Amino acid sequence: MRLATYNVEWFNTLFNDDGSLRDDDGWSGRWDVTRAQQIAALGTVFQAMDADAIMIIEAPDTSRHRSGVRALDTFAERFGLRARNPLIGFPNETQQEIALLYDPDKMTARHDPLGEIDQSSAAPRFDMELRMDIDVDARPDIIRWSKPPLEVALDVGGKPLRLIGVHAKSKAPHGARDDAEASRISIQNRRKQLAQCIWLRQRVNQHLEAGEDLIVAGDFNDGPGLDEYEKLFGRSGVEIVLGEGDATPLFDPHAQMALSRRMGAIVSTARFKQRGGPYLQALLDYVMVSPRLRAQNPAWQIWHPFDHPACYENKPLRDALLLASDHFPVTLDLTM
């Protein structure tokens, strides 16, 4: 089985309200890329991955007038994808859903959210609120997911598998009037993001304690050594979800590489262009697996157009990866 996670930058802008593709020369949400160029590039990337299931981060919007399921149906049909059945969990208000495209000939999938509706729980349902004191003032803060994780119950050839899709995000310090206020807001936002990761880890613990095989996949906008806030708080959200201390660990080789600091270079899954400046690269996207799955010797691959020889040597694919998104897919090949 091949599973992928892929953050598609402003996928939503490529569709009309009726779910049809806006395949024209108008500008997409990507800088200096037309909608037709991005659509074609995404088709090339999805076809090349040929995955059995793709966790799409920033999937098309589901709202009163739009259907992310209908949009993904259109996209999968247009490019003849095996992974053609879309699944979306709790819709959010950001126009960036978390969705799964999967091959119905290989597996079944259903949205299966766990957790209590009672907000006093240590791990309430992801569309609820978590109350946690994050700034040590003896008063609980209200923690919400702007994009509630997608919890999926998979059945792959009769074998059950749990899958959680994640888009954790620490908001920029909008409205700050000076550097000091920007720093204060940024610290508060990062505290909230770490609380979300603690919440997610509680759900991970529930699955592991039940003896279930689990994959956590998505964009954490955070990671070992990513920024100065890790020094301030002593850990990243990725480390929390992977498991600390005596907790049963999840595993992702790229996260382990970043944590070990044994290499001069760090792998990356995203490449951002600064206007008037150089490109910045970061490791933001992960596919974490539970111990039994790790024991099956799965293979991870970042589809980086410059770092992976097969992507670099295939010029149409290399160009498509650069046009399609500011993130690159991460795939996991696993024998079930």
Summarize the helices and strands and which ones pair or pack.
Layout: E1 2-7, H1 35-49, E2 53-59, H2 68-78, E3 85-88, E4 97-102, E5 107-111, E6 130-132, E7 141-143, E8 150-156, E9 159-167, H3 179-209, E10 214-219, H4 228-233, H5 237-242, H6 253-260, E11 270-273, E12 279-282, E13 285-289, H7 291-294, E14 299-302, H8 309-313, H9 315-324, E15 330-333
Parallel strand pairs: 1-2, 9-10
Antiparallel strand pairs: 1-15, 2-4, 3-4, 5-8, 6-7, 8-9, 10-13, 11-12, 14-15
Helix pairs in contact: 1-9
General description of the model:
It is a single chain. This protein has 336 residues and is of the alpha+beta class. It has a single domain (2-333), classed as Endonuclease/exonuclease/phosphatase (Deoxyribonuclease I, Chain A), CATH 3.60.10.10. Helix content is 29%, strand content 23%. It has nine helices and 15 strands. It has helices spanning 35-49, 68-78, 179-209, 228-233, 237-242, 253-260, 291-294, 309-313, 315-324, and strands at 2-7, 53-59, 85-88, 97-102, 107-111, 130-132, 141-143, 150-156, 159-167, 214-219, 270-273, 279-282, 285-289, 299-302, 330-333. It has a six-stranded mixed beta sheet, with helices on one face. A five-stranded mixed beta sheet has the order 5-8-9-10-13. The protein has a two-stranded antiparallel ribbon with strand order 6-7. The longest helix has 31 residues, at 179-209. The radius of gyration is 19 Å and the shape is globular. The chain starts with a strand and ends with a strand.
